[in-house]
Write a structure and sequence with these properties.
1% strand; Ammonium transporter fold; globular; two-stranded parallel ribbon; cell membrane (chains A, B, C); 2 strands; transmembrane (chains A, B, C); homotrimer
């Protein structure tokens, strides 16, 4: 019956069919064709990206091309774009043998999600009533990147446990739910949320956590051998962390108001993030033997200040207010990794691979509250001639939560259908399942695998080859 | 006669002299001194980077510094700069033991090439007739980066098989040829090609392929042991892929017209790239056992949409038009890696290390055609008050092709001269040849090398030491 | 008494207490709280980031939000931000087992330093006399990043030999000293130094070198086994190098004058850096057997042109002048690595881990001189309507040097206090000391450690276990 030297390659190890040779190409092709058709039917350039811009300028007495929104937002857009593809992608490369999937699936679902988001958000926000077309410009592509961020957050909770087809399905529904909850929060409740504490982080966080709860794997410990980092994978993850951290001021200011709005949002976020770093390091060191720092905290909790200023960064929260928010969130988020994540896994059956509860869900909730308080204490005298109308914040947070939880439950049920080629419990966190891997002198030596295999699954199986049986997990 | 435990280190393995201790410093010093002299004789600041700008503003009734071209293009320039040095450099780190050379030679030839390009392009495009000086500003340094991109594309075909001196020579001629063909296409034929589908990708692609054909190595299989990736080298390569992918909208919009031109070019490229990703993943999965994805496709074919929109991105190609182009190019490019590259290596004797035929040459050609069709279907009514005069597109594509193939043949012949210190056939893809390598616990174990050596070269040589003889390859 | 298979883990190896579990959290918490209080007392938004900007626009007849300084400098700020966190951070990952600390401590001290810098620089430069508040905007956060750069340069000299608490203390004093010397040079001496050749690089360089001299470790050779790179750590370091190299034009232009000033600074820096690359490669190749390149030179000396144009880049130094500066600095810096660093370590007792003398101190000094010469040869006729008043350059350089050396001596003495948890001489360059490391199949095999341990420290100790004694180093 063959030998057992290298786990995960022999047919008796896994009962699940992880072949995506039909489903993945089908989903990619059909949905991309659908995008083309829908874009053909609905999407056109807006007046600032259309060749009639020179006429538009004349009609509106605009004297300079520098008034085109492109020049107010494009640099920020590129920063956000880096956060989505390199930031989120590399942040998730920390697992020792899941870097291809982390970067690669992130790439795939973001590339699909931004197209679907342009349509969904376009129908809700950018529909030109005169001709029924969605008119797109630089702000739309920023918002599409934002929308996709919520799905990538959810991906973080499911990392290592889902097939690319599942992730595509999750993104399809995630983007759709996002567009609706965003419409309710921004347009119906008239809340402002330029950096998406509520719309992106709270929604995305609870969406992912609920899916992860529905997809709970009681025997995930069987993949324990791959559920950790190696030295270089942690360094790769720091690339993601730093690009997220550095460009977060652009994230929170990208669609803020021109002028002081964008300016202030960038400064506030810059400060909150700096404070998060210090308190994350403090708690990480305080919690460990000899004060040794833990890369998980450094890679994640340092970012919490940016999440928590998603709503309030464009407001007059003051520089020290931003520092206070960052201070608290660094502590909160690191405590989350130390205390809440193990608790949730053990008692709530939520396996949150990247700890998105600590980095996105909690700080996102807090960010909504901070935004509400900041807005409530603001008055026309502080905001100068641009009074900002704010109300129903609690409702906004509730909507984001509800969409995340209810939507996540429904999508989680769909993802449990035995159609999507997801890996077995003893086969998670492994690029081998969906990628052609190079023959690699650095790979985990067979002898180690062998030992793990024995320890975890079939302690006796390897002793005598005749003992092997199909192990249904 | 010594032992054979570690290949590539013993004197009998290689007949070629790879010592570049005289030639490389000589080329670097002399050419850099030449650059200084030529810049001294010819290059000055243009009116927007010169200290007389305040006077210029007054004379031309410019009221704001924000009208300085710097603010329209500098953010895009920096994105392009990242593509050239990190994008191209890291994309080529995928080989297991050629990362130093990939990043390092890319760095060297780009740093030389941008200087020579400023001169060559300056003489053709930016010569001030009043004083005979080349006047440079931000658009010139963007164009210099563009010009160098064509040489880095050609580098991709030769990766692992050339010495740094050869690459410098290739860049010297490549930049010269580029400047001439660009002048013919843009100035004489009046084609527009803001993102360089024809001038950069078609020319650079066929230039590199022809050189690679001239430098064909029949015994390259002797370096097979190093002609592949390892796990972490593929992750490094994804850094290159993603920075190219993310910043390609800046590449195609950097020198487009102010206002709607840049705005539209960025949006179109964003969309085409997203579509490329989905079809690349689809074909990659479809072509492999169990639907497993291949990193080569993900690293490269996902970028094809950006190449193919190089000409048309600033036109009114429409959002769905961009998606269609990206859709087709992702398929085309992945098929190229699956079918054409092996075919070309076997039957046409073109060893294309990075598959530039699939990523640059073919999509570049297609991009020229797409540009021609888009321009032909455009009319003044669509383009508003700025009608664009376009003709002789087929001639433009032909010029790019001719310069690539004829120029590549001539340059290839020059590079065959036995002067340049290139490696032997059994010594390719190896940083050891041109770099001081760290003693490394991660290196390929001698035993493995030993086995490969036996398999590939002298099956009997290692059995008995007395059998060794100088192996001239 | 246990065995000696893995060095650095048994209690008898090191006499020093590297436990930072109290000190690191205490410093982070207390200083962050101090920042919040001081920001609360002193820091507010300036007129361009405050919600009264619309009123300000009206009062000053500003017609467009594009006149907000944010849009002149924010893209450059983000580039500088990347240099500080990814550039400096990853440049220092070259050591085989110090990547966590390189990136992680860089992150920590920069995040603290920028806050303290906003205060210190604010008191000197941005204090609003009408209400006593520091008013901050985008230029302040750029300057804060600049200020921190000087401390990160100093970190480079101490890399691997200091605890995070020491680095925090060093940053506290470094930022303070920087703010004072910057005030003297820019405000009292009226020198200009937009890219900080004097204020940042000369000061930071000599500050770090003096600290390193005070902290001299006679037995550092005991950590020799970790004092080098491995293949992938050198590739990681190239990420740092390239982001520094690519974005240096933004560094030198970020706070230059609007319009031609920023434009020219970017072009000059672009050119000087390109020339540095060629001469660095030339000298590196010339100095080695068979012309093999050395990664240390490529990672560092290629950047020297940017340092040396820190002062002069905004002046009318001319394009060929920039090339000449880059040409010389590439040579100078590479020679420094080849000749001066070994000399300084042997004879001056300065252990300069990253060679900051060659990359920052010397080119910084040269940059001050270049700036002085350029300014002196300038005249109103060249500078058009904006004559620049420059004097007392020699005094400026002297101030930077004096603050670096005297300040470094004082701070070095403080850092020698036995309070800070720094590692023992045989325990340097090791992430193990301050980080929870993943169990790692790539780690240096115990057998190698064992051998090193024997070679270096107690040749006999491991032969018989009964021989072990506490080894006080």
């Amino acid at each position: 019956m063959g030998n057992c030297q290298v786990c995960c390659k022999n047919f008796w190890c896994h009962s699940k069919n992880t072949n995506v040779r039909i489903s993945l190409p089908a989903v990619c092709f059909l949905w991309q064709i659908a995008m083309i058709i829908l874009f053909g039917a609905f999407v056109r350039y807006n007046e600032e990206s259309d060749a009639h811009w020179p006429d538009y300028k004349k009609e509106h007495n605009i004297t300079s091309d520098s008034e085109n929104d492109f020049y107010f937002r494009y640099a920020s857009f590129q920063d956000v774009h880096v956060m989505i593809f390199v930031g989120f992608g590399f942040l998730m490369t920390f697992l020792k043998r899941y870097s291809f999937s982390a970067v690669g699936f992130n790439f795939l679902i973001a590339a699909f999600g931004i197209q679907w988001a342009l349509l969904m958000q376009g129908w809700f926000h950018s529909l030109d009533p005169t001709d029924g077309f969605i008119k797109i410009g630089v702000e739309n592509i920023i918002n599409a990147d934002f929308c996709v961020a919520s799905c990538l957050i959810a991906f973080g909770a499911c990392l290592g446990k889902t097939s690319p087809v599942q992730l595509m399905v999750m993104t399809l529904f995630g983007v759709t739910l996002f567009a609706v909850e965003e419409y309710i929060i921004l347009e119906l409740l008239h809340a402002r949320d330029a950096g998406g504490s509520m719309t992106i982080h709270t929604f995305g966080g609870y969406f992912g956590l609920t899916i992860s709860w529905i997809l709970y794997r009681p025997n995930l410990h069987q993949s324990k051998r791959l559920h950790g980092s190696v030295y270089h994978s942690d360094v790769f993850a720091m690339i993601g962390t730093l690009f997220l951290w550095m460009f977060w001021p652009s994230f929170n200011s990208a669609i803020a108001n021109h002028g002081d709005g964008q300016h202030r949002a960038a400064i506030n976020t810059y400060l909150a993030l700096a404070a998060s770093v210090l308190t994350s390091y403090a708690i990480s060191s305080l919690s460990a033997n000899k004060g040794k720092l833990d890369m998980v905290h450094i890679q994640n909790a340092t970012l919490a200040g940016g999440v928590a200023l998603g709503t309030a960064s464009e407001f007059m929260i003051t520089p020290y207010g931003s520092l206070i928010v960052g201070f608290c969130c660094g502590i909160l988020s690191t405590f989350g990794y130390l205390v809440l994540s193990p608790f949730m896994e053990k008692h709530l059956k939520i396996q949150d691979t990247c700890g998105i509860h600590n980095l996105h869900a909690m700080p996102g909730l807090l960010g909504g509250v901070v935004g509400a308080i900041t807005a409530a204490t603001a008055s026309t005298s502080i905001y100068g001639s641009e009074g900002i109308y704010l109300n129903l914040w609690a409702a906004g947070i509730a909507v984001a939560l509800a969409f995340g939880i209810v939507g996540g439950a429904i999508v989680g049920m769909i993802l449990r259908l035995p159609l999507w080629g997801d890996p077995a419990d003893d086969n998670c966190f492994d690029d081998e399942v969906y990628w052609e891997l190079p023959e690699d002198e650095e790979s985990i030596p067979p002898i180690l695998e062998y030992k793990n295999h024995m320890d975890i699954k079939n302690p006796d199986a390897c002793v005598s080859e005749s003992n092997f049986s199909v192990d249904q997990s």
